Amino acid sequence: MTPRLDMIGMVVSDMAASLAFYRRLGLDVPPGAEEQQHVEAVLPGGLRIAWDTEEVVRSFDPSWTRPAGDGRRDLAFLCDSPAAVDALYAELTDAGHTGHLKPWDAFWGQRYAVVLDPDGCGVSLFAPSEGAGAAAPHTP
User: Cys-Cys with 39: which of 13, 33, 88, 94 at CB 3.0–4.6 Å?
Assistant: First the structure.
């Protein structure tokens, strides 16, 4: 199976302001989500969009810094298995793309890695960890 785009992730400095903006654009964001550090909404067709605070991202990527330009977007691709995450990461980095976070077993129950696209935007690769069950959500 080919990896499929599963979620669009954004790093935000002000969760309430960001959610208010996207609600104005018609996204169905859960009530009270402003108090959370990770928020998800399902888009028509099943694609998800998520917002993470800068603090959440720094909790698992201490080297992350606020970008000077547009670098807050993170596309997340669901892979078939933890081994598929490793293989795809290797394929992309072998092709010359920059690896940002090597595959690792994340504390939220996923095999997780990040590769930078040609413009320097993070692209997450993930799969439920062995024994984690069916498609565990991307929840850094």
Answer: 33
The DSSP code for 130 is T
For the whole prediction, is pTM greater than 0.70?
no
Cα–Cα distance list, 86 to 4, 29, 35, 110, 124 (Å): 16, 32, 34, 12, 12
User: Strands 110-116 and 99-106, how do they pair?
Assistant: antiparallel
DSSP string of 85-127, one letter each residue: HHHHHHHHHHTTPPEEEEEEEETTTEEEEEEE-TTS-EEEEEE
Amino acid at 88: L
CA distance 71 to 137: 22
User: Which tens digits make up the pLDDT trace of 45-82?
Assistant: 999 999 999 999 999 999 988 877 656 667 788 999 99
